[in-house]
Amino acid sequence: MADLEMPAKTHGVGVFLELRRRLQSGLLIVGKDVAKSPADVVVTGGDSSLNIRTPRGHLSLSLPAGVTFEQGSCVPTPAGESCGEELHFRLRISVMQSANEEASDSMMETLRAKETYCFYCQGCMTRLLEDRVFQRVLPLPNGNWNAIVDDWCCHPDPFANKKLLPRAEDCLLGDSFLLLARDSSCEQTLTEEVSAAGSEDSQVAKKPCRKLTLVSCKSCSSVLGEAVAAETLKLYITQVVVEPAVGDRKPEASLHRSLFLEKTVAARLLGLSTSLSTFHFSVQTPDGKAFLLLWLLNSDSITASVPETCVGGERSISSPALHSPSPGAARALKLLYTACSDTGIQQRDIVTSWEVNAIGHPVVLPLKVCEELLQVIDDSNSTLPASMRRMRSYEVAYLRL
User: Fold this and answer.
1) With contact defined as beta carbons under 8 Å apart, do 266 and 176 qualify?
2) pTM for this one?
């Protein structure tokens, strides 16, 4: 039935691997198009690799530094309802703890005062702003701070109708954006266009249509953020690349768009989960409309998914790309998700429950970016074995860190 429900989104999975660093264990799934019985699968460990031998050939998956397979620990385990299509194995790993194991190279985690930074458009790597040396790099209150301000104050809201804006040499960090002052180069590199946020015929009468001044790259027309005040820019972290300024060094070529988006969002979700102790996120458009609901299950996964067509012959898969045809094992977040546009009865019940109970920390992104992110997550879901694609009424995905 799974193939009938989602025929356009799925394809044959040859080998799927998920290792858990904290549990020091793992799950290996081999499709029966690759091996007919557990006896056909032999798993051994190599130098920072996991070697899988099947009748179709030999597969060598590179593992992150410090992770090794415990020889002889791979044993068959019941595959449940998927026993007709999949072989399941449990295995053990050893993990050498590293001081920077949980370190993130997220822009939001690495920006520092008194250091010089360059800002580039992620789409075309055009330089957007003059080099900046921030005197202060400060976090903004979290996304729903104004909803609980009454709990802080015993008098009328002192922040009513006031925006928190940066000074000339400030960088203010929001959950998914940066606030910083314009400079003289903006006239040559940026364009502005007034656009409506929300619809005038919205069913929610309390949210009238408001205007946004969108800021775009003059070279490639990619929307980068908003002009929230005459001299203040709001740049989304999914749209810009920020690098330390080192001499005359030219910027490195940007990652492929979908990979950049995946890694940026994953790193930010992990950072917010750690700092706020929350695991539920509501990805919203600038008009406050929920687009995608995310439930972070764990952040210690190491995963690889190899299509059935790529299993065969002597090959070493060392590329860390999670959703490409030749993935290696890479760190990833495991998520449950549902799109708010899903019309299924169970999915509508989930969306209503999250709304009524105010579940989900808001993460605001432009509409186009929300759509891109949903595509990335759906693509991840399509690489999973049928038994792994759903949990309860949610769909499952992995975002690489």
Assistant:
1) no
2) 0.85
Secondary structure in 3-state letters for 92-117: EEEECCCCCCCCCCCHHHHCCCCCEE
Lowest model confidence (mean pLDDT) among 48-52, 156-160, 217-221, 303-307: 156-160
DSSP 223-257: EEEEEEETTEEEEETTTEEEEE--TTPPPPPPPPH
Cβ-Cβ contacts under 8 Å for 308 (sequence gap 6 or more): 11, 12, 13, 14, 31, 33, 34
pLDDT band at 31 (very low <50, low <70, confident <90, very high): very high
Centre a 10 Å sphere on the Cβ of residue 357 and count the other Cβ atoms it contains. 9
- The answer to whether 134 and 113 have CB atoms below 8 angstroms apart is yes
- The β-bridge relationship of strands 361-364 and 330-339 is unpaired
- CA-CA distance, 181 to 175, in Å (whole number)? 18
**pLDDT score for 237:** 95
Closest CA to 124 of 258, 227, 218: 218
Q: Which amino acid is at 4?
A: L
Instruction: Using alpha carbons, select from 280, 282, 383, 394 the residue that is nearest to residue 344.
Output: 394
